[in-house]
Amino acid sequence: MKFFSDKGVLGLNARNLLYIRPYNKKKAISIADDKLKTKKFLSARGIPVPRLYGVIKNKQELDKFDFNSLPSTFILKPNHGYGGEGIVPIASRRDGLWITSSGEKITHKHFVDEITDILDGRYSISNVRDSAFFEQLLVSHESVGDYSYCGLPDIRIVVHNLIPVMAMLRLPTKESKGKANLHQGAVGVGIDIAKGETTNISYKNRIIEEIPQIGPIKGLKIPFWDDILLIASKCQLITNLGYLAADIALDKTSGPVLLEINARAGLGVQIANLAPLKKRLERIEGLKVSTPEKGIRIAKDMFGNIVEKNIQNLSGKSIIGIEEIVEVILKDGIRRISAKIDPGSERTIIDENFAEECGIRDENYEYNDEKSTVKLKLSVGKERIQTVCDIEKITEGDFKVIIGRRDLGNFFINPTKKIQRINEKIKDISSSSNIKPKGFIKKMSYSEIDQNLIKIDEKLKILYYLRPINLEEEQNKFFKNFKNNPQFEYPELKFDLNELKKELEKILTDDKPEGLLFERKKNEISRKIDLLKNIGNDNFTECSINLYGKPEEKLLNECEEYLKKENILYPHFKGSITAEEAKERMDKIFIKYGLTKWETKIKENMVSDAIAGKNNRLFLRKGCLFTETHLENLITHEIETHILTAENGKNQKYELFNRGFEGYLETQEGLAIYNIVSSGDREKYLYLAISLVCAVSLALKHSFVEVFEKMLDFKIPPERAFRNALKVKRGLEDTSLPGAFTKDFLYYRGFKKIKEFVDRGGKIKDLYIGKFSLDDLNLVQQISDLKEPKYLPVWL
Questions:
Q1: Residue 409: how many CB atoms within 10 A of its CB?
Q2: What is the C-alpha to C-alpha distance for residues 554 and 693, in angstroms, rounded to an integer?
Q3: Which side of the chain, N or C, has fewer Cβ within a 10 Å radius?
């Protein structure tokens, strides 16, 4: 084959000398070669992996192993296996026989012998003694499962320099007995990196037209493509393997799941893509890539459909197919519809029924004298067209528009290009009194956007859903034995997160100051949904970091140095003021500021001593005893910062000024601490905020018990140390594992930002306009009709 004569093809020797030896260090390779170590290492860092059911390390453990403890479906793997050898996928068990996913029946003795072979090192890379493990048998997503014979297909992504350089879909065949390994008879299907679409089929180092016993697959769109690329690139970043292949499966319910990483990936991916790997690797050598996301953007730009890009770049013309999805731009929104591209027709035609249902026959549109044509704006590909359409009845297919040659001057037509089908619910936001046709995207006013965002956001009570329902029970266990890592359970969600996400996607913004603020809030809400979706899962920590961030090294070092000072100790609040007495004081402060609708309530089972609620209520923790200083601090924090700001927000034109725009939490909490520290000799109040920065950092890598013990080292009393550990480990089920809810480090980082803002001449008064991020102050000040804050602390 001419392909193999291409000097850009990467061979085994070149791969080893140029990429594996210089880029893959022994320590990193040892992680990749140990599947169990890989699972634990990557899962703790937010990479989705299959569930682990059991491990057998030696023959003594094999003799004692309870096979009845295994679920009905699972997969047996050698820990140090290579090339798919020794893997046994079990789909069921009947009449004392194990049934594999390919239908083969195995006796229990044969199955035990297979495990014995694994322990003896028959399948290990170095032929040394090995261990066997049982993990979740994934069920393939139907999009790729329909092209596979029995077993689980996977997607192999080759990554270098954080850039996914080449990818293929590996499909099990009857010959490969349900395994996705090419050397065992599976087929490899190339994937266009930019589009996530399948291209060529390779089988035993040659190109074929169809998958054996299945049929053609070219042009299949791989779902979750961007997520798959991101997982692969993150694996390289986390493991520090400079050159790797990530094998990722598409599970029917979980989506992309990492199966394993390979530090010595085979080279069959080149044949499936009919593209030399060495040339691609050389093109990215020396590029400075800071994040996986940037690596993916580079990959799509450099390794997408290059021929089509070159045509567009040289000619300035877009390439379209004979069927396209086009946008009809109406006066109150956009409608996405199917269109036929027909150079044989002189003029563009729009279907009369479609024109009627969209109101195009309305008097607001311009017609000729006979009213059989209409001026219309269309968006085709990346081109905007303004044309005069004939209104006629279209009976051909499902087309609503036929675009004629008069409007095709800026296009090349590729008759083999597939139509991009509308495969999602069309964006449709309409009132019950004015229902728009399916497919209509209504342009919302800023007030409507504001209300729609709040409607979704108010359901996402993160702290409520992160409060363990068995907290009291686990706390009692912990204080009986400080070595018990709590096992938390969480409330069930009372709404459908996927439906909320769909509602969120219907909200369209623009690039004006209000639009930018709303778009940022929309993105924050999306990240909140992801966090709630992953409570108790391996991805929870990553979702928390995406939402709140995590402590930077400089900030962490500063906090650790602060806590080492012997002259600064944790302020012990051994007070005598009861919650009931504190309630009376708080209510008097409300009267002082004219906040007659606010009231204080005492509540059980709170994590914090006090918290301002959303319904004009300030909650105090039942049984808490306050010192005078502690109570004054809470008044400054909750009432004179959070509540006064919220009340000012109610006077603004958008309700999000009251509820909070994106990133408001850091600014609000930082402002509260700044107000307390600035109002007197209360620098010791920083101790708690600083200790939480360290607690978050510790929790990311350590267990609940280890965080608790470190808090004790900081001279924090046991009850408070427990609450600190709880704050940063909530969201996890098994708190013995690394992982954190990272929100609480924002208090001190917010304080630092407020202090720097004031030191640069910023006015604290500006931050009382409403709840928003300090970083967005410039955008906020560009909003028209912005009202000055009515409620300010007495010292302002």
A1: 9
A2: 12
A3: N
Q: Would strands 154-160 and 163-171 be described as parallel, antiparallel, or unpaired? A: antiparallel
Report yes or no: 35 and 303 within 8 Å, Cβ to Cβ.
Answer: no
State the Cα–Cα distance between residues 620 and 601, nearest whole angstrom. Answer: 6
Q: What is the largest CA-CA distance in the chain?
A: 93
* pLDDT value, residue 390: 87
Tell me the C-alpha distance between 53 and 138, whole Å: 13
Pairing label, strands 318-320, 411-413: parallel
| More confidently predicted of 531 and 366 | 531
Long-range interactions of 757-763: CB distance < 8 A, separation 24+: 758/674
**H helices within 564-685, ranges in order?**
579-592, 628-634, 644-650, 656-659, 664-678
Per-residue DSSP letters for 226-285? Answer: HHHHHHHHHHHHHH--SEEEEEEEEETTTEEEEEEEETT--STHHHHHTS-HHHHHHHHT
Quick count: other Cβ atoms within 10 Å of Cβ 72?
A: 11
Alpha-helical (H) ranges within 358-433 are none
> Which pLDDT tens digit goes with each residue over 563-574?
877 666 665 556
Q: What is the pLDDT of residue 348?
A: 92
pLDDT at 644: 95
**How far, in Å, CA of 771 to CA of 41, rounded?**
39
Using the structure block, give the residue that is written with the tokens 């510790």.
Answer: 698
For residue 63, pLDDT over 70 is answered with yes
Closest CA to 354 of 403, 400, 415, 287: 400
Per-residue confidence (pLDDT) for residue 307, from 0 to 100: 44
Q: How far is CA 442 from CA 14, 313, 333, 535, in A?
A: 56, 34, 4, 34
Total-model pTM: 0.49
